[in-house]
Amino acid sequence: MRKGKVWACAVLSAAMAASLMTGCGPSKTTDGGTAASADTKAAGETEASKGAETEASKTADEPVTLKWYMSLNPVDADTDKVIAALNEYTKEKIGVTIDYTVIANPDYKEKMPTLINSGEYFDICFTADWTTNYVQFVAKDAFMDITDAVKQYAPETYEFIPESLWKAVSVNGKIYGVPSYKEMGWQSGFFVNSTMAEKYGIDLTAVKTLEDYTEVLKTVKEKADAAGEDVIGLSGLGSSGGSFNMLYPYESLSGSRALPGAAAVPGYEYFKDQTGVFNQYATQEYMDYCKLVRSWYEAGYMSKDPVNYDTDIANRDNDFKNGKLFSYIISYAPGAAEAEAAKTGHGVTFVPLMDPLFETKNARGGILAISSASEHPDKALEFINLLNTDEYVGTLIRHGIEGQHYSAVGDNRVDRTMGGTLKIEDNGYVNYTYGWQFGTPFNQKWDISYPDNIEQLFEEYNAKAITAPHNGFTLDNSPVETEIAAISNVVDENAKALESGMVDPEVYIPQFLDALNKNGVEDLLAEINKQLTEKGYQ
Fold first, then answer.
1. Which of 59, 76, 143, 69 is nearest to 99 (CA)?
2. What sections of 331-480 are H helices per DSSP?
């Protein structure tokens, strides 16, 4: 992976300042820009130019402080030490220091939207489609349009990130955040305790489909029972987001894979009889899947209460580490199996069920956005450029301070145990090894738990990814907000039990589909079709 050189600009140009500063014009346009008379615009540019010159003079003497809100879990004990070291570097490099507030993931989802809605000042925040909803806050003018600015103030980052990612994070043709360039898409499958699989004589290479996994689960139960061991064969089917939408590749067009509104993707074996936009829950694939997992549940291959079991991730991880859980469903990234093996102390193998699928949603899994009220958008972009292109910054923000949190291994590796002298549990900055939330992970010195060819594995993974046909499409859900709310409740009430095998699909799927129809699923599908046509996707 190519690494760009750090670039900085000393003075914000008048024209760029005018485009970056929000609230200068008297009225908003429909695309989130501003409308103003020529005289007003000229006056605004003059003031912006003066302000830029003043700011340039100021930063020559003292650094600009950027307020950055971040979502991470957990929040490591030595975070303040690491940020202090970061500030020493960025102050000299680009005249910036960071006022950093990190909030654990579950709380961030609630607190950050409240902060934004209340008008709390910030320069940079983490956003995604799953937390502090990117598209919704773009619609509220909370995030700045950086379409032109990112090319000027973070040119290496702009060139480094593939065009398909920029297209996917664009809203009505404008860019409002910098996506994390990592694995291109998602690839579902199973994380398997390969040490246990070898012990039980299981050939994991024979598993190509979900149906193939039945024999694996059967063997695990028979061998464990014979040895008097209590082992759960598979976890993840009852997760909050559902399991069908993780294991069957289709393009999600509704804004959430759990919501009806799918399109078939050429290159996969599923949904070949479907045309246009369809309700994935009304397909034969869904019925067949629910029947399969129902048979697994009845055979005792899963927890007796998979929905509740799958909500406690910490307990699941502990069971997997201690040999009480054989496998679980995961969306994979290269090197993840090796990292998991290092964490658990036993072999871990990823069993893929599909080639990677890249769709709009994936690019929006991690984004750094700049507040529309930021007083220093140029410096915010320069800092984001460092996060994505400066190896020292990339290593520091993920692994901490050399000599305190890791030791160097050769020129491009780190050891969080410092040669076995530091226990992981005693390391005050240890939980962000991959660190995709900060930006691309390709500008770091990788931990030794990852394979030596980790970046090559990413290149191969991304090369295999199949791009969905409607990449970049974003549903404006305002015409169907009521239907989406009602449908979401119906899905939540039905899908988890069906997809974890706890209820009979022959009985409950017809009831599920009837409830979806009564709550406007056809209106939702029609609106998706309408917008696809209006936006030139079909």
1. 69
2. 336-344, 360-363, 377-389, 391-399, 454-464
